[in-house]
Amino acid sequence: MRSFSLASLSLTLLFSTSFAEEPAPAEDWQIIPLTEESLETSWKRTLFGGEGEVFINSAAELEFDFGSPMTGVTWQGEPPFTPYYELELEGRKLSGIDFFLALTFPIKDSHASLILGGWGGGVVGISNIDGLSAAENETTSFDGFPDAQWVDIRVRVSPDRLQVWLDGEERVNVETEGKEFALRAGDIELAKPFGLTSFETRSSFRNLRWRPIAGAGSSSQD
C-alpha cells in the first residue's frame, strides 16, 4: 500500500485549494455610469413638473430628492443595451410613502416599468401587462422596503420571458408571448426609453450595469 507523509498531504491540499479558489472568468457586464458627468451627457433630469433635486451624493450614489409627485432621470437617445439583456442595479428608499423606483425599460416593441414600493409603499410588479397595472396583474407581490436598506435588483428580458430578482429571489417570471406591454398612462411616459423614477420618495442608486443575453426560455441568474 502506498503511503503519504503529512507534509505531502498538506502540499496536495494546498494546491487543491489554490486551484479551487481561482477566480471565475469575468462576466461581460458593462457599466452604465451614474456620475456628475453622465447627468450632463448620457442622462437628462426628467421634467415631470414638481420634480425634486437629482444629484450625486457624497457616497457617489445617484440620489433623488422628494418630488411632487415624481423625480427621475431618463436616458438620452437609444438605450445602450441590446433587445435581449439583463439590467442590474442597487437601490434603496431613504424616506417617503410610495415607490422608490420605477425602472422603465424597453420590452418587445414597447416599454414597461418595474415598480418597487408602489401604492403606498408595498407593491412590487410590472406596469402594465394587458392593460393591468403592477397592483393588479400576475406579477403583483408585496414587500416592506425598510428605509436605507439596499436592494439588489435584476431584470432579464429574453425573447420569450420577463424575469425580475430582488436580492437573489425571483419575484417575476412571466411569458411575454401573446401579452401586451405598455406604460401606465400619465407622466411616466416621459421616462421612455430607459429611466429611473421615484414618487414622493427620496431614494438613491448605484452599480447600474447591463449585459446581453441570447436564447429563449433561460431562467439562469448566473
List keywords for this structure.
222 residues, mainly beta, Jelly Rolls, 8-stranded antiparallel beta sheet, 7-stranded antiparallel beta sheet, 11% helix, 40% strand, globular
Characterize the structure shown.
This protein has 222 residues and is mainly β. It has one domain: Jelly Rolls (Sandwich), CATH 2.60.120.560. 11% of the residues lie in helices and 40% in strands. It is built from three helices and 15 strands. The strands form two sheets. Strands 1, 3, 4, 6, 11, 12, 13 and 15 form an eight-stranded antiparallel β-sheet that branches. The chain is globular, with a radius of gyration of 21 Å. The N terminus is likely disordered.
Q: How far is the first residue's CA from the last residue's CA?
A: 44 Å
The CATH topology: Jelly Rolls
- Pairing-aware structural class of the strands and helices? mainly beta
CATH superfamily: Exo-inulinase, domain 1
Which residues sit in consecutive blocks of at least 5 with pLDDT less than 50?
1-26
Helix content bin: 10-25%
Backbone shape: globular
CATH class: Mainly Beta
How much is the average pLDDT?
88
In percent terms, what proportion of residues is strand?
Answer: 35-45%
The helix/strand order is: HEHEEEEEEEHEEEEEEE
The radius of gyration computed from the alpha-carbon positions, rounded to a whole number of angstroms, is 21 Å
